[in-house]
Amino acid sequence: MAVLTLSRDMGSGGQEIGLLAANSLGYGFLDRERLIARVKEAGHKWDKWSEGMDERTPRAWERYDWTYRAFVAMVQSAMIKEAVSDRALIMGRGGNFLLKGVPFALRVRVVASLEQRIARVSGREGIDEDSARRLIETTDRERAGFLLTVYGKDGKDPADYDLHLDTTLVSIERIAAQLSVSLSEMDRLVDEKAVKELQMRGLAYDIKARLFTGLPFFMPTLDVEFDGEAICVRGVVRLPKERALVVQEAGRVAGKTPLKFELRYRK
């Protein structure tokens, strides 16, 4: 079945909409806690990054830390695996960017007026309105910083979504019902080719995480992506033996999946 990615402003009611839609359709619900639990299955070394994963902007040094970049690749892989598992709803974490171009992915953002958001957060958290406003401002800033670091966008542009819904104007229940209908209609777009291509994207992130954590040397640049035909590993190495290690480690993860290597030697 089609997959739903749901981005939301804090206090917009997006979480509630996601739960209602998931329950109505029998969808799995991949929120922050469930996503972190899946990533941690790969080992305890991810603990320090999973704390406050997208609740704060990564510091400058963290953006270039290889274990952080590996952690992000693991998160992206886990989200894609959820998307191809059938009946999946992915909350936040840039799922709309990750699944861009996937024909059976419905990418939705839920917003609301600041006044309504403050009222919701104040009631939910049991805090006064000034405290709720500060919490919203901080959360908005830190979430946008995470998305900017990983995807180069802050997640606020309506053009990055298929639907942009405002709970100031429409009830949570009505929006959830609308999404259930839209997802049912998108089921016809699920085909073997599209699913296979998404699986290849996930494998590319698995390979990237392996290279970030498994290589005994630093690569100035490294990227792994599915180009429509094969998984392509791009980067810069210094020595032939380093290139050989990249090929070896990538192959261990890829198995029989075709790989291409565009590795340049550092001058």
What does this structure look like?
With 267 residues, this protein is α/β, with parallel strands linked by helices. The chain has two domains: 3-191, P-loop containing nucleotide triphosphate hydrolases (Rossmann fold); 193-265, Histidine-containing Protein, Chain: A, CATH 3.30.1340. It is built from eleven helices and eight strands. The protein has helices at residues 14-25, 32-40, 47-50, 60-63, 66-83, 95-98, 114-125, 129-151, 172-186, 192-214, 240-254, and strands spanning 3-8, 28-30, 88-91, 105-111, 163-166, 222-226, 231-237, 259-265. The strands form two sheets. A five-stranded parallel β-sheet has the order 2-3-1-4-5, with helices on both faces. The chain is globular.
Q: Top keywords for this entry?
A:
Rossmann fold; alpha/beta; 11 helices; 267 residues; three-stranded mixed β-sheet; five-stranded parallel β-sheet; globular; 8 strands; single chain; 52% helix
